[in-house]
Amino acid sequence: MDRIIFHIDCNNAFLSWEASYRVSKGGEIDLRSVPSVIGGDREKRRGIVLASSYPAKKFGINTGMSLMEACRMCPSLNITPPDYDLYVKCSDALVHLLSTHTPLVERYSIDECFADVTGCFKDTPAAFADRLREEISSKLGFTVNIGVSTSKLLAKTASGFSKPDKTHELYYGELLEKYFPLPVNNLFMIGFRTCVKLYSLGYRTIGDVAREDPALLRKHFNLFGLLIWSNANGIDHSPVRPYEDRPKGIGNGMTMPADAESPMEAYPFLLSLCEMASQRLRAAGMRAYVISVGVRTKDFTHGSHQQKLSSPTQSTKEIYNVSRLLYNEMWKGVPTRAVSVRLSGLTADGAIQMDMNGNEELRQRKLDKCIDAVRSKFGDDCLQRARVIHSGAKPVAVTTHKDYPKIKPNILNGA
DNA sequence: TCTGGGGTCCTAGGACCC
DNA sequence: TCTGGGGTCCTAGGACCC
Fold first, then answer.
1. What is the mean pLDDT of residues A328-345?
2. What's the predicted TM-score (pTM) here?
């Protein structure tokens, strides 16, 4: 029997979540009904559009555009900074609602889920999808698109057909009419680079790629060519994997308010990032073998260096010390625009290995634990390292503690 | 139009081992 | 030792996703 897979895609997620929250708190304007965007802080050079309302889209404003350009297109634009803590709660609420219908729910990103709903309904898949959309809208206060198919690949493609608040079906038997005519950049896993290359080779539509000899695509793109070919032919048997909450890596990065002209200027930011990442690592109950530092320079070139440790760590101090060495390795005198710290090679936090420095490690561990506890009780910004405070570096991510409207707290906690 | 931040996976080349 | 091949680990970089 064929599976029935839904791809649930929140319409304009950040913007409608923010709008819905504000309306529930008695806000006067609904951000969805005026030209508005969710976007970063221009002064801190994080000025890009993360989400835009439909009225804003009419001015030509789209995700990824700089705020400056967006304002030029619409001077009366309403700009709201993002509140990730709220968005995570909304995302959790969606996953929980879907889980009441099927245990096979996979969170693909903060605003997208797959659900295997085979055998979960008595009528048609489309009718069930419509009911689900209504349920999400009435219980959670935002709209979604649902793509319906027998595979994740086609369900995801279908959910993008037209927005908002729609159900679309795309079955294997409909590829010729609904899938092959689409421009090749609509194909999953085709980004900017590959699209340019495909164009130069003369492929314009998904059908052009689907009808090609896979051996030829392999010649041009290696194994990736075979993936492109099977995606173009709608072939995908991957299962819906229920949410796996063991991350492969944890990282944080930031664009600095001004380019760092020397390593000394970058260190406070590096320290702040190490604190954020290691705190998340400890909260997840994990330790990391690999520490990577990424650097984007003034001229937008990117580089990274990493180091594998002989034993995994979760200590802020150790992570910071290694990060500084890695940063120094990359320093070639070009001012740094952005830095990131990533922890990977994760492993569950077990008993610590006692070595010559056992006491020192225990001491650091107690210190980190104590700092985490104080921050979780009084807020992330209540306790800051002296060298971070005066640097202009953003302190450890400041979390706010808002409850998402219309969702009972026990749902949020129990999800 | 001077371009964020959080992830995942793949690949090529070098080191090292047998 | 300058000579082969295969396997594995590690690193840097590049592509993609949202």
1. 92
2. 0.84
